[in-house]
Amino acid sequence: FGIASDEKFVITTTNRKEITEDNFSELVQDGVTLYLLQSVDQMLLLATKERIDFLPHYDTLVKSGMYEYYASEGQNPLPFALAELIDNSLSATSRNTGIRSIQIKLLFDDSQGKPAVAVIDNGSGMSSKQLNNWAVYRLSKFTRQGDFESDHSGYVRPLPVPRSLNSDISYFGVGGKQAVFFVGQSARMISKPAESQDVHELVLSKEDF
Fold it and tell me: Sorted alphabetically, which CDD domains does this protein's record hold (predicted)?
């Protein structure tokens, strides 16, 4: 790597966790991308890519969420799908100390390749590991445990009140991915953890599947 004998460096995961002798076996596994940096918080010079491989749970086929949308008793199911996406933003901004900003944009041009629905918030953000877990179908944000790092770490479900900006508003609870693919053909998640300078991007495409 062209490192001088007197030069100091660190090896980290994409979540900027430094690899040490104590945590080597825990953090260094097949498929993990590592950074060789001068310091843990060094600015990356180029964008990097990390392939995510996972086997969808069998519930993807038998409980994909479409039944709830199409069985919505004659109501327009589109608002329910949007509510799922907004619900993620409500969770992410629940602990904001300042302004909570959640925007919904309907993009009818080709700026994103095709017309798109964009939900933008100033929440806590997700690491690459949390984005990975978001991609796993039927992995509830309230039941993740063990190796799964929650994408809503520390989030506490609000008290049951009428649906508002201080409550869970998702109607069916079938998850953001099902909502995305009910509305369109692909999902693009761009997230920057509040405590990190790294921006993480995840793309799920029906065409790729």
Answer: HATPase_SMCHD1-like
Q: Which distant-in-sequence residues (6+ apart) come within 8 Å of 186 by Cβ?
A: 180, 203, 204, 205, 206, 207
In this prediction the pTM is 0.66
* 141/122 Cα distance (integer angstroms): 19
Structure confidence by residue, pLDDT tens digits, 104-141 = 999 998 887 889 999 999 998 988 888 887 777 655 55
Residues whose CB is less than 8 angstroms from the CB of residue 202 and which lie 6 or more positions away in sequence, other chains included: 52, 131, 132, 134, 135, 187, 188, 189
Query: How do residues 56-110 score in pLDDT, each as one tens digit?
Result: 665 564 556 676 777 666 678 888 888 888 888 888 888 888 999 999 999 998 8
Q: Where are the domains of the chain?
A: 1-54, 58-146+164-205
Task: Report CA-CA distances (Å) from 132 to 4, 124, 191, 198.
Answer: 35, 16, 12, 15
